Each structure stands twice: as C-alpha cells, then as structure tokens.
Amino acid sequence: MSDPATAAVTATTPAREEVLTTHDGQPLKKSLARALRREKMRALMLVAPLLIFILITFIFPIGDMLFRSVENNIVGDTLPGTVRALQNWDSLSGEAPGETVFAAFADDMMVAQEEKTHTRLGSRLNYDQPGISSLFRKSGRRIAKMDNEAQVEAFKAANPLWGEAAGWQALRNSDAWPDALPATAISWANFSRFVESDKRGKVDPANEVPYSFTFAALDEDLKAMPPETLQSLASSSNADVAAMFGSLQGKVADIPPSTYKEQFLQVDMDWGLVENWATIKRLSPEFTDGYFLAAVDAERRADGVHMKPENERLYIMLFWRTILMSVMITVSCILLGYPIAYLLANLPVRTSNMLMILVLLPFWTSLLVRTSAWKVLLQQQGVINDVLVWIGLIDDTNRLVMINNMTGTIIAMTHILLPFMILPLFSVMKTISPSYVRAAKSMGATDWTTFWRIYFPNTVPGIGAGSILVFILAIGYYITPELVGGTSGVFISNRIAYHISSSLNWGLAAALGSILLILVLGLYWLYDRIVGIDNVKLG
Amino acid sequence: MAKAGLPVFKPSLTGFVVPLVAALGAVFGFLWGLSMGNGTLGIVLGAVLGAAIAYVLPTAVPVKKTGVLGVAILIGVLGFFLGGAGGAFAGVIIGAVVGNAAYWLATGDYRAGLPPYASSNQVLWHHFFRIGICGFIFFFLIAPIITIIPLSFNAENFFTFTKKMLTLDPEGYSLKHYRDFMTNPDWQLALKNSFMIAPFATILATSFGTLAAIGLSQSHVPFRRAIMAVLISPMIVPLIISAAGMYFFYSRIGLQGTFIGVVLAHAALGTPFVIITVTATLVGFDRSLTRAAANMGADPVTTFFRVQMPLIIPGVVSGALFAFITSFDEVVVVLFLGSAAQKTLPWQMFTGLREQISPTILAVATIMVGISIVLLTVLEMLRRRSERLRGLSPA
After folding, report:
1. For the structural domain made of B184-389, what CATH number should be given?
2. Residue A58: which of B237, B209, B347 has the closest Cα?
3. Which of A55, B20, B206, B338 is the most exposed place for a label (fewest CB within 10 A)?
4. Domain ranges in chain B?
5. Does any CB of chain A come closer than 8 Å to the CB of residue B276?
6. Tens digits of residue pLDDT in B34-52
7. Is A299 helix (H, G, I), strand (E, B) or coil?
8. Longest pairwise C-alpha distance within chain B
C-alpha cells in the first residue's frame, strides 16, 4: 500500500468505476449488454428456420387435430336456416317441430344435395342417432320434387314484382335487408350457393328470382312481423319495395302456408320423430364435447351425460388394455434387458463391443422386417411351432396359437423395444464403480445381498429412464399390433387408425388421439424431470 | 489358462468332466435321434460318444486346436453318412461345440476370470448366467433376424424350413423371391419411391437440424427448454397421432397424397435425431477454436465451414443417417399422408403382411437387413473417428 503507483490507482479507481468504457467510448455495461443481445439474437436466428419448419409441419397439424376433436361446424354450415328455426323449438316438448322448421330444412337440403354435403352430414348425425343417415339420403333424392307453387302464385298475384328479378334486387338494396327479413336473407344466401354450384358461376344469382323455398321463408318473416314494421316497409323510399310490401298489407294472413312438413312426412314418417330433431338441435352449436364423451364411453342424452350401456362400452376397455399391455411389455423388457446390460457393462470393452452389435443390429433393422420375422416365426405352421412339434413338446394337432392375439403383440413388441431398455441401463451401469461391490463383499455380504442392497439401487435411475422410454414408445404403437395383434391384441392406436381410414369418424379419432397425446405428454414431462431430454443418447 | 504363479486347478476327469460332456452329447444325440426317428437311441449314443470324447481327447491330444478340429471332422463325417450334406454341416458344429466343451472343462479354463476362492455354486451360477440366461436373451434378440435370411432363399412358397433346405440340398434353395422383387412393378415402384423420399427428407432434416443444434449450443439462448421441447416433440409424440394430425392438416391445405407432403412430414420426424446427435458432438467442441478463427480475421461463414464443420461432421453424418433410416423405415405417416403413387418399401411390406403374405417380403427384409448392417458399420466408424478427433479414448 505504501507503493505510490498503487496509491495512485486506488485514488483514481472510484471515479473510473462509475463509467468504465470500451475503446470506442461506449459504457462497458451497455456494450456488454449489446453483445449479449446480439449473441442471443444470433442463436435465435440459427434456431428459427427449424423452429418455424417444425411449427408449421408438425405442431400446427397436432393443434389442428386437437381442434377437430371439439369442432362441429358441419350442422351449422350445412343447415344454417334449420339451426336458426330450431332455436324456437323445445326438444322436451315431445312434439316434432312445425312447418317453419321444415320449410327452412327443405331450403337447406336443396343446397346440400346440390353440393353433395347432405350425405356427409347424415353420416355425422348417424354417430349420435343411428338410422338418420338413410333419412338424409332418401330425402336428398326427393327434395327437388317438393313443391310450393300455391304460395309463390299468391305473392305474384299480390304484386308481379315478387316474380321479377328487379323487384328482388330493389328489396336487397333497401334498408329492410336483412334485419327485417332474417329468414328470407338466409334463404337468399342458400339460393346464391345453389346457383353458384348448379350453374358453376355462369349465372349471376343477383339477376335471378329465388326458388320457391325462399317464398316460404318470406312468408314466415311476414307472419312473424309486427304490423308497424310492414307499414314502414310499405312506405319505403324505394318505389318498388314500397309497392311490393304495400300490396301485401292486410293480406299476409291470406297467403296459403307452405306444406313442407307434410311432404317430408310423405317421404318418410321418421321425420316426425322428436329424437331426430333433438339430435340435429343438440349438434348445431359450433363446438361439441360429444367426441370426447364418446371417447370415454359416455353420451349426452336429453337429461344430461350418462355412461353408455355396459355392452356398448369399448374405449375405456381399450385404453386400459393399451396401458396394461404396455406395462407388460415394459416389465418383460426390464427382465430381459437387465441381465444383458449387466453383462455388457461388466465385460472387457473388446468383448462387450462385439456383443453390443447383437443389440444394435435389431435396433437398426427396419421395424417391418422384425415384425415380418415374428409373423413368420410365430405362425401355426411357422418355425417355432415346427421346432416344438419336432422336439415333441407339443402335439402336431395342438399347435400353439401365438399370433393374432395378445401373446403375439407382447412377444414382438418386447423384441422391438428391448434395445431401448438395454441402452439406458447400460450407460447407467457403466458408471457404477466396481469398488462398491468389492467393498460390500469384503465386509462379508453375500452375492445376493451385494447385488440387492448395493448394485441394484444404483441402477434404479437406468431402470426408470428405460421404462419410461419403452412405455412411451409402446403406448402409441400401431404397426406391430396391427400385424400380429389380431383382435384381442390391438391398441388404442389401431382404433384411431380405423376411425381415420375406415369409419371416417375423424372427430372421434381426434378425441381419442388427444387423450392418448395428453397421456404421453404427461409421461414425457416425467421423463424430462427424471432424466432430462438433453440426456437422450442414441447408439 | 490359469495365471502363472497360481496352482493349476485340475478338475476330476471321471467325476466331473466326463458326466458333463456326456450330458451335452446326450442333448445333441436326442435332437439328432429325433430327426432320424428315434430320440431315446439318440440320447444313449450321444451320451456314450460324449463320454468317450471327454475321456480320451484332453489327455491323448494336448493341443486344443488339433483336438477340436479332429472331433469336428469325425462327427462331420459321421453326420454325412447319416444325413448327407445337412448332416455333415450339423456334425461339424456339434463336434466343435462338444470338443471345445471337453477342453474347457478338462483344463480348468472354465474357472479363468473367476477368483480362485469362488465356490462351485458361484462358478455354476456365473456360467449359467452367461450361457443360459444371457445366451437365451441374445438368441431372442438376434434369431428372428437371422432366421429370415435363409428362409428368403426358400424354393417353395413356404414360411418354414423344408426338408430339402434342412439337408442343404441345392434344390431346396432358389433366388426366385429376389427375382420377383426385381421384376414386380409394385415392388420396384416402392423401391424407387423410398429412394426418392428418404434423401430429400434427410437433406431437409440435416440442414435445418444442424443449424438449430449449433444455435442451441450457444451459451445464451432464450427459452432454450421450451424450444428444445418443441424441436424434440416429433420423436416423442406417438406416430399415429402425428400421422392423424398431419393427415387432417395436410388434406386441408392440399398436401395430402403428394410427394412434397410426405417429404415434409418425414423431414419433421427426422430432425430430433439430427439435433440430438449434433448437440452431443458440440458438447465436446472447443469454443476457443472459433474465437481464434475470428481473431485471425475469418468471417462467421468461413469459420463455420473451415473450422467448426470439419470437427462436427461425424455428428452431422450420423444424424443424417438417423434421419435417413427414420424416413426409409417410416410407414405410419406415409400410409395416411401418401397415396398409391407415393407408396414406399415399408408401405408395400405392410400391405403385403396384412393382406396376403408373400415370401417376397422375406427377400426384401433380407435386403433391408443388409442395408442396416451397412448403416451400422458406417455409424460405428464415425463414432470412432469422432472420439479420436475429440481426443477421447480410441477404444
């Protein structure tokens, strides 16, 4: 401290410490912060392409699937007018809806059958109300023949403008559209869709008079309208509109009602059933929990959520079976993987590297190759049965059934997933110092005590890591159960695939998939907590 | 061989070696007898032969190699007279096993590697664990793959070994399933598609994945855990869910049933493997090298290609191999996303196995095992090179 140079430094330091600067005069703190920010940005820039790629090609589709499990636009999109008309109908009333609903339904169906969406809607409704799909198909064929001439003629008789495109154009341009005539507006939108689809854009619907269904909607709007509104419409600033509504003043009640209800009941009496309409009404909201309820074997009835009858339950049993079989596969993998990992970890490096090939070769061999190998080996006329018969362990007539059932799935999947158990176990066992075992033995422990009290507890992290990995992989397996599982050895994945490609019930597939995904993500979180995802090692 | 300085342990010949080898001989004799039609006679003859070998061989022929060779030839000739070429083959193997066992037991080699004070129960358990338990599990692991290789050369359309195959009759074998694979247009289309899709998916996955791994290995990355979780997720999410999600989404945007759709999906599935392998290589990467390069005036691009890339290339290549095999093996996603025009080898195998299983599948499977052996070898060489570069032990 007595050194003058040191003293000078100490004297000047406090003043400098406040604004340490870099050579270009920037404060050091700021400069460092900027460098850090730049470094962060650079790291993010490097990660960004892949992150965006994965988000678009993978995460977004998964999100889309989750959304699809609650999405339910089909009823609202296909039957917009019917959904609106059904709002005033009480499904607990015990009576089928009235003419208003049927008129709107006829209108919607006309467009739907033109756009060929009514059969799709029918099959969607069929999940909830068996039998309704044939009603839709049948009515779709007859809808174009339904008739409303009496009503149309009555309007035209009141004022010919009702039958002219100019009149309708004026109406649509007036203030009354669409607030005063809600049903008519929906019907007009339907008519535009119909013309677009029917004439493929060659005809502008704006230059047309709507089809007869729209007159039923108009009739409904007029009958629901208070007289003052009609009065104000009749005194509209547009002369045509004023004339059209003026001609109707006092005559609204005289317009003959449409007869769509009658005509639908002629097509099929089942249109009179309350349940069919209740189903349509129940499924009209944009979102539904129906798929998730179905995925856990429940259903929504008029009086709330109930479990399905015992004999119709399927999915809870399938989930349980999937979990149970995954546990059995995981346990078999532990039992078979532990001795191998132990042997590999305790052999000289050269020998263990040689034997490791026997573990890695199956790991690297195509999944389908291994599955086909098991399919060939486990068949009743396959190699294993042949050998057993040859040795005389079983009779030629009593060959073992080891395929197309649970046994087949468990054997093949244990074989396929075994390397995923051996590799983490091996890497944990490699780190256990042999001196622990020697110390225990030198203090008089028997072989078994040494193993059970000293060695085994040290390998538990490896067992945990391997088990979660195997379990996660097993629970979502599809290919192997599909090929060797028959009917009793299939997993929930196979049911999901069935709903995507065969039954086309995509909503239910999405709901089942979402439940499975949540299960797997939970396990993944656990794995991350225990092992850390950064510690995954391959090969 | 017992170590020098320790007393050489000599087990009793008649009380230990002869009965054990005789028992081994009896097992082989039983199997042989079964194939000839008389199991019991086989047991007796096998036991007698085994006992004779154990009694005479180790004392009469002290050189192990000569002795084992002699026994193998002896039993091989015996097998030839009993069962032709197949019998000779089996005889040579049995002779080698029995001969080795006789020497192993008689010279006391079986105690090598065990402490001299080990009790006989401990020795028994030691060998039972290694030969019995581990041998069985290794057999379980490898046998299914090995079995299909000879079966793929079957001259008949069977999935089991025919009599002619067992007697090593050349007429029992043929290349007809391979010929079918090479000429059948379905299989050829699948082969072509597999080799079209996998490379593109690999290039996409490797380039994006390597960049991201380098980014993630920087010292300051905001939201590293969350980003890592997102990037690894294609490996964790069950394939059926990925397939379902992609199917719904890609059909909305018109990529379902297109080549591009399948390539994008496979690239997404392959990236986690690239990230994991490249990150693992970067852990041992000395950061001062890039600083040194920058210090000497290299711009970041030059630094990357001239300094960093050569060092992490083993990780990148093994990641690329993983991505390749992921796409090459993948079947669930392609089943949903692809149309018939994009069917790949696994797809063709899957439909073949599900509908009517044809032996051509075994030929394809054998070829694919060959491909995996090649990939495994390349990967092992890369691992060694990487360890050498990073100065880790060359073993």
Report:
1. 1.10.3720.10
2. B237
3. A55
4. 13-118, 184-389
5. yes
6. 877 777 888 888 899 888 8
7. strand
8. 85
